[in-house]
Amino acid sequence: DTAVSQTPKYLVTQMGNDKSIKCEQNLGHDTMYWYKQDSKKFLKIMFSYNNKELIINETVPNRFSPKSPDKAHLNLHINSLELGDSAVYFCASSQGPRTRGFNEKLFFGSGTQLSVL
Amino acid sequence: AQSVAQPEDQVNVAEGNPLTVKCTYSVSGNPYLFWYVQYPNRGLQFLLKYITGDNLVKGSYGFEAEFNKSQTSFHLKKPSALVSDSALYFCAVRGASGGSYIPTFGRGTSLIVHP
Q1: CB contact under 8 A, A92 and B43
Q2: Dist CA B100 CA A35 (whole Å)
Q3: By the 8 A CB rule, do A36 and A116 touch?
Q4: For the segment A4-61, what is each residue's pLDDT rounded down to a tens digit?
Q5: B43, B45, B101 ranked by CB distance to A111: nearest
Q6: A50, A96 in Cβ contact below 8 A?
Q7: Shortest Cα distance from B111 to chain A (angstroms)?
Q8: Which of A92, B2, B34, B49 would disulfide-bridge A106, Cβ 3.0–4.6 Å?
């Protein structure tokens, strides 16, 4: 009974392609996130989405677009993939809305390893 | 802007010995501090957090962390390391104001416990 699930686990694709990673949480959480972990294991926030409010990290290229059909899902769509996009992408969620979420822990998915050839 | 520093890329310790993984932070206002652990090919798992109250926080798997406001540190500790503790450890901070509710993670410290 996985709390935060991501698909696919592995994604190998060619440069220039468009791909999506799906994320679902069954915890009833209000806030979801996408993080990127590079080859040196550095974990960097990409997006946070809470109650239809999207917080975008300014350093994320606009080729990356999150889509949230409902509060249990936050998918990540990537256009025109580049070699530098190769990384592990983690979805996460936390319970409360933004105004009450300061002290809440994150629940992470198991990650999607994206390899762009 | 909030930030976290984990000064050691790797910590080596013998099984049975005490371990410390260091973390310092920078944030506006009161910090909310967290430690997470990542096992190979897995997502991060929550270990413990400091919100307020006692400076020594106890968490999962026998880990604890000590909050030191004057040194802006939140070091992770365990009295007796196990080989199974070998993993990647991340410190994270969240601010209490200014829209800084999104947690910022450190670069991670690889803990290796030798038998």
Answers
A1: yes
A2: 16
A3: no
A4: 999 999 999 999 999 999 999 999 888 899 999 999 888 999 988 887 788 777 789 9
A5: B43
A6: no
A7: 13
A8: A92
